[in-house]
Amino acid sequence: MRACRLRAVAALLLGVLAAGGLGAQLRPGDIVLTCRDTATAGGRTLCLDPVSGAVTTLLDKFPAPATQLLGSWVEMGPGNRDVWVAHEDGTSGALYVLSPAGAVVTVHPLAWRPDCFRLGDDGGITWSGYGGVFTNRLMRTDRSFGRLTTLVSGLPSLSLSHQEIEETGNLVAAFQSTSPLGGVAELDPRRGVVVKSLAGLGLVNTVDYHRTSGKVYAVEFGAPGQPSALAGSLFEVDLAAASVTTLIDARTPPGEAVDRLNWITCTRDGQLLLGARHRIHRYDPVARGIVKTWAYEADRLQALTGAVVYGSRPLALDTSGGTRPGGSVEVTLGFPHTRAAGAAYYLAAALALRPGIRLGTEVLDLAFDPVFFVSANSLAPGIFRNFQGFLGAQGQAAASIRIPALPSLEGQRLFVGAIAMIDGAVVVANVEGFTIRS
What we know:
single chain, mainly beta, Immunoglobulin-like, five-stranded antiparallel sheet, four-stranded antiparallel sheet, 2 helices, 6% helix, disordered N terminus
């Protein structure tokens, strides 16, 4: 039965691929969204221009009999140009690769429901899966969607999303249960265990890790007046202290404005993007308030399930060859900006994320420590290779870190970040980390 269903979905997806999708030229700063219109109708993948508020459809609802294929999750693909989008139909799904022009390039049927996925620096993908043997598991595949392995099983109830905790390499995951027992859990994928969990937060859908503060933010799905705990709320979670602070509670004003909080993503200027029913909010965790809202017609963005800022992952690490002392970690940059070609770039490394370095409105999440000073000033070019230079014709560059062959480095966490000078402005890249281990 499952095999027949997968074949039927695959045939439909091939038709979508042949049609090429609807398409729209994607630009850095655009927000790519996955959504489902109702609990039973088909989902869309959309592009939001945060300046004008215009919405463009990239992937429309699927025709019968696959109207159940719902928008699920979205991430920037390798190289920071393509967008990877997951849709699901209850127990299985598919992953689409969209080009910078917003067109479907390839499509991959999946045997599990992809509630969330993240691209790892080890050349793999981690998945929060659902459906049959995949339920309540954190899984890993390679980037060809093969070699499926289970990293953590026995998760609390239904795990819906996860994100890396940069300081440790562990993951934080959202989980649901009979309200109000849902919450967040910390997972160690290397040991395959749940480190800790904080329950009682309601129907938590999505979590995101905030590098600048080290806090975890979670959103709880619900509607005002429904008997779920803290319906439609935003939480700030301190895993180390096992404490939770409620920042938005939909039972109090603005009430209806935060109905059905379904996803969250942290931006590099320290703020949060929140997806609600018919609305997207920009939230300032310092001022503790909503500072901007985009609203849309009732038949669109009814339940947002995932979002990514286009071009938000310029820096990537490749640890597939290992991170042992004496080894090498590859670093790649990819800036999809129109005028990135020939722009100067500067990489740096550090032993900690905080306090970060503020550059205009954004923060480079690296501590100004001795490693930062040496790497940023090219004082050890044999270790930090090509840490300064100029971007290529496609806005790309390659560098590497040769890890000194010192046993004392075992277990040390190292973080890497970058900036580029594009069209007269400082563009801050994401920061990624890895642990030196034999």
